[in-house]
Amino acid sequence: MIISKVSFRTGNYKYQLTERVFVQTSIRLDVDIITEYVSLLKNGLMILEKGYAWNGPNFPAIHTERSIIASLPHDGGYQLITLGLLDVKFRINLDWLLGDLVSQPAAGKSLKIFLLNHWRKIRGGYYFTVVDLFGARYAHQGNSLPGIGEKICRI
Prior knowledge:
The protein has one domain (about 10-155). Helices cover about 35% and strands about 15% of the residues. It contains three helices and eight strands; from the N terminus they run βββββββαααβ. The protein has helices spanning about 65-80, 90-100, 110-135, and strands spanning about 10, 15, 20-25, 35, 40, 45-50, 55, 155. Strand 1 (about 10) and strand 2 (about 15) form a beta hairpin. Helix 1 runs antiparallel to helix 2 and helix 2 packs antiparallel against helix 3 (about 110-135). It is globular.
């Protein structure tokens, strides 16, 4: 799984992208989904546009840089589900992606790095489990968000 460099700021929304981000997901589609801020291509590439805003991880997660970045494509994917553009069956892929991004290992061979990487694997498993158990209430398909529906098209 690959994610490009993420640059964001805080402001009117909790977090907002200051540049475009690319994330390779495990999702495969028959058609590309294109919206103003979140696109998901047939090959699984998610594109999150500059200006996209998200809330970061939900309680009980701590807002660290790693968890904020991991929550970005997860929130984007859930938004596509909520808008009825992505089938809810892909929620599991998004939940796994969140866990994978949280648990990505740091480079190095020291004992400190080894212990940190082991902790990240545990933390990633925790994120996946919590989101898988409680995330369904945020992925109600077909709900429209005010002011967004008219800017969406499928290609």
